[in-house]
Amino acid sequence: MDESESLVRAHLVHCGFKRIVYEPDGNNPPDFLVDDKIAVEVRRLNQNEVTDSGRLKGLEEDRIPTERKFRQLLRSLGAASSGTSWFVRYSLRRPLARWKDIEPELRRELENFRDDATQQKVCRIRVAKGFAIEIIHKASKSHPTCFVYGGGCDSDTGGFILAETQKNLRLCVTEKLSRIARVRHKYPEWWLAFVDRIGYGVGASDMELFREHLAMDTGFDRVILLSPLDATWTFEVPSK
To answer: CA 134 to CA 128: how far, in whole Å?
Structure first.
C-alpha cells in the first residue's frame, strides 16, 4: 500500500466504514472495496503532460531523476584548484533532452569553469534542449566541491491552482475511467479518491469558487479531493 492509498484508507476509516478490503481483486481495480459494494480507486492529483502516445506523464517524472543526476555530477567534479566554491542551479523546460545528451556538454562547461579562474563569474549557460544552468554566486567559504547545489526550477510547473486542478482533474478522471472500464460491471458503485498534490486540499475560503468551476460529469458515483496533510479534510467534486 503506497502513501496515497494509506491516506485514503485513513479517510475511509474516519468516515466510519468498518469493512475495507485492500486490492480485493489483486493487481486490478479497485484499490479498495468498502462494505462489499463500493469500489474505490485511488490516484495522486498531480500536474501532467500528455505524451505522444496519449499516456499521462507526471511532470515530476522528468524533474526528479534530472535533479538527482545533476547533483551527482556536481559532487563528482570535486574541488577547484583555487579552493573556491560556487552555487549553481538548473532550470528545465519540456520537451527536455535526454540526460545522456545533456551530461557531456554540461560536464565540459562545468570543468572549464572549475579549471579556468578567468571564467569564474556569475553566468547563465544553456546546455541542451530544455536545460540550462546558472552560476548564481560565489560561496563565502570553501566547500569540499567546487560546485554546490543551489536549487532547481521546473518552468512547466506552477500556475493558478484552480486552473491546474481543473485541467489535471479532467485528464486523470479520463485515465481512470479507461482503467476501470473492463471491470466496472463487478461492483454497483464506484468512487475515485484523489490525494491532492496540486493545491494540497481545498481551503474553506475557496470551497464556493471550486464548487462553481470544478463541476463536471466524471462518470464516477463520487469523486473527492483529499488533503495529503489531513485525511479528514476533503472536497467533493460536484456533478453536472
So the answer is: 13
State the residue for C-alpha cell 473492463: 182
- Is the separation of the CB atoms in 228 and 196 below 8 Å? yes
Distances (CA, A) of 61 to 48, 49, 191, 227: 9, 10, 26, 22
C-alpha cell at 218: 466524471
Tell me the average pLDDT across 206-219. 90
Q: Which of 48, 47, 66 is nearest to 57 (CA)?
A: 48
44 beta partners: 195
Question: Which range has the worst mean pLDDT, 167-176, 200-209, 224-233?
Answer: 200-209
Cβ neighbours of 216 (radius 10 Å): 15
Say if residues 215 and 76 touch (Cβ distance below 8 Å). Answer: no
Of 134, 81, 85, 87, whose CA–CA distance to 106 is shortest?
A: 134
Given a contact cutoff of 8 angstroms between Cβ atoms, the answer to whether 45 and 21 are in contact is: no
CA dihedral 159, 163, 164, 170 (to 10 degrees): -160
Grid coordinates standing for 137?
554566486
